[in-house]
Amino acid sequence: DSGVTQTPKHLITATGQRVTLRCSPRSGDLSVYWYQQSLDQGLQFLIQYYNGEERAKGNILERFSAQQFPDLHSELNLSSLELGDSALYFCASSVEGSNTGELFFGEGSRLTVL
Amino acid sequence: GENVEQHPSTLSVQEGDSAVIKCTYSDSASNYFPWYKQELGKGPQLIIDIRSNVGEKKDQRIAVTLNKTAKHFSLHITETQPEDSAVYFCAGRDTNAGKSTFGDGTTLTVKP
After folding, report:
1. CA nearest B19: which of B74, B58, B91, B83?
2. Whole-number Cα distances in Å, B19 to A68, B13, B16, B66, B84
């Protein structure tokens, strides 16, 4: 158990809809990262938050947005969903300022868009 | 930004043999190189890492080597076991900048 909690584990929805994925980082971790993993694909970086502020942005679509709340949990909002958005979405957290930068991953939220 | 390439994409070995996975990176600022193992239905988990001031690191059957000049690093698994079967990801990170960039992954199958 990494200590990172993601909900929901599975989500099935229709094209055009909007969903919210939630992540609770490990206790004490200030940074939260979101990654997308499509079928047979690697881990594509979406966005990073550090202590409530956006710190880095990857290939995140304009239809997607995220935020980190004062209690450090984070939400990833996906709107106007398309079939191609079906993927595993991982949240990871880390202790910023450490020398290693190890990421602790949750078990992912599997999104299926029909 | 950083670009990490990983080879091979699939690797099949017999139990007891060694497995080697190689990665190259592009950003000279990257100073931390972790390897993650992802089992089916799970999130990736760190198995070993190396920092840029170290050339080699070993942990039981797993070792990682880093060549900063050539910008490549490798994962070596000796005496492979069926439970080593998983997807392995390498990554590069500048710990001063934030995000980790991952390779595309290697699916390792260890045949009993």
Report:
1. B74
2. 40, 7, 10, 16, 10
| pLDDT given at position B53 | 85
Nearest Cα neighbor of B109 from B44, B14, B5 is B14
Are residues A101 and B42, on separate chains, in Cβ contact within 8 Å? no
Q: What mean pLDDT comes out for the span B19-29?
A: 95
| Contact present, A30 and A6 (Cβ < 8 Å) | no
* Whether pLDDT at A97 is above 70: no
Does residue B98 surpass a pLDDT of 80?
A: no
CA distance A110 to A78: 13
* Residue B16: its H or E element: none
A-interface mutation test, from B100, B101, B107, most A Cβ less than 10 A away: B100
Q: Where are the alpha helices (DSSP H) in A34-110?
A: none
**Which residue among B43, B45, B99 places its CB closest to the CB of A48?**
B99
Strands A109-113 and A10-13: parallel
Q: In chain A, which residue's Cα lies nearest the Cα of B1?
A: A58
Token pair for residue B78?
A: 């000796």
A87 to chain B, closest Cα gap in Å:
13
Nearest to A94 by CA among B59, B17, B93, B88: B93
Query: In Å, how far is B9's CA from the nearest CA of chain A?
Result: 10
Of A56, A90, A98, which has the smallest distance from its Cβ to B98's Cβ? Answer: A56
